[in-house]
Every structure is written in structure tokens, then in C-alpha cells.
Amino acid sequence: MFLLTAGLLLSAIFVISGQRPDYYKDYPVDFSGMSPDDYVLTAGMDDTGIPRIKQAYFENTPPPRIGVYGHHIVKYMSLGAFPFDTDVSYFFNYYVQHISLREIADLLQYQEEKGKLPTNLGLIHLSHPYLGPQLLTEYRWSMPFEFYLNSAFKWDVLSVQKVKFLGEGYISRLQFRLDWKHLAYGLFNIALGGGCQKYGMYKTGEAPHSVEVPIWMDRLREIGLGVLVDKFEAVYSQDCGVRRVQGLRGLRRYGTFYGPYEDYRWVDKGRPPRSLGMWTSEDVQSIHKIALEIQEIGKRNGLDMVFFIPPRLGSYFPNAGHEHFDQAVSLMQAGGMVVLDTRRAFGDYNSTGSEGGDSDNLRGKITEFERSGQLASDYLWGQDHVRDSYFRLIIDELETRGLLPLPSPVQLSRDLLGVVG
Predict the structure, then answer these.
(1) pTM of the prediction?
(2) Helices 160-178 & 180-191, crossing angle to 10 degrees?
(3) For residue 131, which of 359, 338, 355, 310 has the smallest C-alpha distance?
(4) Angle at Cα 265 formed by Cα 139 and Cα 318, nearest 5°?
(5) What are the pLDDT digits (tens) for 112-137?
(6) Are 314 and 274 in contact (CB under 8 A)?
């Protein structure tokens, strides 16, 4: 009887403590129905929030013709990068705040299994070598837990690290559910009829109303439950508040980041990048192997895959990744992959990985913009977050190479209309 009672009690705690608000699960975002002035609020969500929103969308919507994949460096790419008017049926930004090339390959495979790959072109972001090889070859663990379960037992990606992560993730979920403060939070959410109401769609510049904890909770303090209420408020303000440090962050209709441009002012202090001494020949082979997986996904589905490496401001340091990255790029290009390498040239050092070195037209433009100061002022936010003006260069290059799919006849060229993109 005791075991039965304990089991029922633990089960009840497990269910109740899981009552956290998940607005976008109940109200999935229809990006195709959003106007240019709309955004959906994501401030306060954890790293898995944005990929969950996008996953729910792409699993229930016809895929676009073009998709861009990468981490936060590419989060600003929007429809404004294209020289014609179009919509989310043509382009969608699948960026995830923290995602590696390894996880991009898994995401593409997941979309392939669901029949949701872009129909014409995939733009694959290759993280700059100064950020370290881990951002390319290892798991960042910021995707939804279920995403990793999908590929957990595929022999080509199975690893001790991944199995350990999945086990730790399962244990942490149990611990989370059995934590008494989350039990209290779940009870309060039930009493409040669904918890906070801050999430949803807003117009540009609009903000949700400030969130107030119900007055009746003060009475709980009066009867000695102040610690319980404090615990609830701490979690509630994270889930339901819009704290000043979070700002009004969200997603626009094409999956692009919405929010204030962070203080991206940056001064080169000559500090070595964190990648110094981290790169090995094994990293070169790992990058090439993952790129081959992505290339094969494209071939199986008649989909062009184009890799691109954005520029990054900063001094040149030997043995910080450029030399190894050159080898990976050379292997990729030797295998017929299109790699738009727009890393800057550094004085006497000129990467050999690019198709034409510094004479390559696109890379030559980037280097010239850096010398004139335009790269920092017009093409980047801060050190490395690329703007639509940078992506316009990429789009123009794709058009020159015959890789840019044409829009539908009704989507007139903004250039023809005399509108600046």
C-alpha cells in the first residue's frame, strides 16, 4: 500500500511539475500568414524555443525554394537580400541560435525524412575558423531533446558523447520534474488558468503588457509560504516577464531574428582568438566528411547545396585555424562542392582555400570593403554578424553562377521598380 501511495504521489508530482506555459505548442506560428510588420515574441525562451517554433512550422507547411542554415551569425538574413519581391514560399531562414555543421547535417536529414527540404537551394553557413572547430564538428546541444533522439542510434553519427548526453538529459528531466519549486510552479499555473500570456504576435515596436504576480499570492506569504512564492516568482518572471536584458526579441515572417541590434561596436585589441592551437588534421577530415553528407542529401533530392564562410574582423594569427580550414575548403571544392569563401585576406597571408585566392571576385570585394572601412560600417554588425547587404553579394554571386532559382512571374523585380533592396 505504501509503495502504491508513493507511486501515485510521485506520478502526480511528475505531471503537475510539467505544467509550464508553452504558448507556441498550442498556437503554432504560421509564418506565411504574417505581415512584414509582424513578429512573434521569443524573449525568455531557452535555446530550444526557436528551433521548436520553426520545426512546428516546416513540418506542416510546403517547403520553400531556398533555405539558409546556420547559427546566430546568419540570423539577420531576410527577404531584403533578394533583388525581387517574394515571400516565405521562396525563402526561409532556419537559423538556430547555437547549431554546429554536424547538427545542420542532422537537421537536413530530418527534413529529408519528413519531405520538407527546400526544393531548389540550401545555403549552408560554415563557421569562421577563429571560433574553433567545435562549432563545426561537435554537438552544441541546443536543439530540442527529441531532435537528438531522432538520430541517436544511427551508426554514422552515434558516439559515446551523444549517448552520455541523452542519458544525462533524461536524468535532468526527472530531477527537474521532481524539484519542489517546479511542483509549486505547476500548481500555480493550474490555478492561474494557463499561466502567462506574454507570448504571441505583435507589431513592430509593440511590447506585451508588464506581467504582475497575482495579489492573492501575498496572502500566501502571510501564512508562512513566502519562500514558496519567491521560488515561483523567479521561474515565472523568466517564463512570463520581459526583462530589460532580454529586450523585445522574436522572429519575423521569414524566420529571421527580430529585435534591437545589440551593441555591436567592436575594436580590434589584437587578442588571439580562442581557436589558437586547437585545430588538428582530424578536424579537417571531420569537416569534409560532414560536408559530404550534406552534398549527398542534396544529390538525392535534386537540391543544390552551397556553402559560404562569412568574413570576420580581427587580426591574423597563425595556427588559429585558417591553414587547416583552407585544407578543408580545398577538399570540398575538389569534390565538386560550391564554397563561397569570403574570409578576408590578411596582409602577407592569403588563404589558398578559395577558388581563386584573393583574385576571386567575391572575395576581392570583401577585402576591398575591409580596407575602405565599408565592411565594418555597411556589411557587418560588430565583428561578425552579417547583414542583408552581405547576403546580397552572395545572392548576386549565385545568380552569376546560375544557381539562383527564379521567383514566380507575379513577384516583380524591385530593381525594375526602382526600389533599393
Answers:
(1) 0.81
(2) 60
(3) 310
(4) 55
(5) 999 999 999 999 999 999 988 988 99
(6) no
